[in-house]
Write a structure and sequence with these properties.
Layout: E1 3-11, E2 32-38, E3 44-49, H1 56-67, E4 76-77, E5 86-92, E6 95-100, H2 109-123, E7 131-136, E8 139-140, E9 167-179, E10 185-195, H3 200-210, E11 217-218, E12 227-233, E13 236-241, H4 254-266, E14 273-278, E15 285-286, E16 290-291, E17 296-297
Parallel strand pairs: 6-7, 13-14
Antiparallel strand pairs: 1-9, 2-3, 2-4, 5-6, 7-8, 9-10, 9-11, 12-13, 14-17, 15-16
């Protein structure tokens, strides 16, 4: 059951400082921001910026140049992957159309969504820009399902909302583990106390890795797997796991492994699909059957109804 509630009105007497380094995100309020990608490639970072140009088209060009410019700051990187070029752009009736070369299609799924989010959030700030569309060559950009991405605004992308630092909360989360035989899923509801600094999707993954609290099931994820990163953008949860995930554990069916993760995360209200990668690479067919290049949706066909 998707129930999240505040539990303990406990706030620690100290606050965690921002990420260390010679440049970090959003310390001061600014009128304009350039959006970068953090070094872990899990979220966008807003950095205050003062444009030199004031006209709409001049400002768009200036912001574009900043998005394509390399940065020496350790905490974040430019959002546009190497090799990607902007061939041209056009502003008409408030719609900004961006035309990229074919290298854009070579970006990993997680990086592409973050890149798109950073570009849109940066350029939508220019006066006169109401929405943005992406093209590769002359063809509109499509998602993994072949559906055109369409017009985008800053609100098209959802990331984890900020919460009060170090507040202790309680979440009732629904998790799916492997049954004892390894050929089906069993459901378990856990009541977890956690710090608000941890996102719910990370909490779900951590509990899946720990295994069930009850005796009916066992963890479906192979031993040695570590969580590298997890983030949510535009309804898709991107789960980046370590190479331990590729350990061949034939005691658990590959569909059970994938849908243990997918179904558990899809219980969260802002997640519709789950994309799994190994060290950032989703160009993998898991155990020769499950394509990690696909964003999986909730699927209860593998439930063990005897449990």
């Amino acid at each position: 059951m998707k129930l999240i509630k505040q539990a303990l009105l406990l706030t620690m007497a100290f606050f965690i400082a921002g990420a260390a380094g010679c440049g970090t995100a959003r310390e001061e309020v600014s009128e304009y921001y350039i959006y970068y990608i953090n070094k872990e490639k899990t979220k966008t970072i807003a950095v205050g910026y003062e444009p030199q140009k004031t006209g709409t088209e001049d400002m768009i060009q200036e912001l574009l140049e900043e998005l394509f410019r390399d940065t020496e700051v350790l905490d974040y990187r430019r959002p546009v992957p190497g090799g990607v070029e902007l061939v041209s752009w056009e502003l008409k009736d408030g719609q900004l159309s961006l035309y990229f070369n074919s290298a854009y299609l070579e970006a990993e799924n997680v990086e592409e969504v973050l890149c798109r989010a950073a570009i849109v959030r940066t350029l939508i700030q220019a006066k006169g820009v109401e929405c943005i569309s992406f093209y590769v060559g002359d063809a509109p950009l499509v998602d993994q399902e072949g559906t055109p991405v369409g017009l985008m605004t800053a609100e098209s992308f959802i990331e984890n909302p900020g919460e009060q630092i170090n507040t202790i909360q309680t979440a009732s989360i629904t998790l799916y583990f492997s049954n004892k035989a390894g050929d089906g899923l069993v459901k378990e509801v856990q009541e977890i106390h956690y710090s608000s600094n941890i996102s719910l999707e990370k909490l779900v993954m951590e509990q899946l890795l720990k295994g069930p609290q009850g005796k009916k099931g066992r963890t479906a994820i192979p031993d040695g797997t570590k969580l590298v990163g997890v983030s949510v953008l535009d309804g898709v949860c991107f789960v980046n796991l370590s190479e331990g995930f590729l350990n061949q554990n034939y005691d658990v069916a590959e569909q059970v492994v994938i849908y243990s993760i997918t179904n558990s995360l899809a219980e969260l209200p802002d997640i519709n699909k789950v994309q799994i990668s190994v060290n950032g690479d989703s160009n993998i067919v898991y155990r020769e059957k499950m394509d990690l290049g696909v964003a999986y949706e909730r699927n209860l066909d593998y439930m063990d109804l005897t449990e």
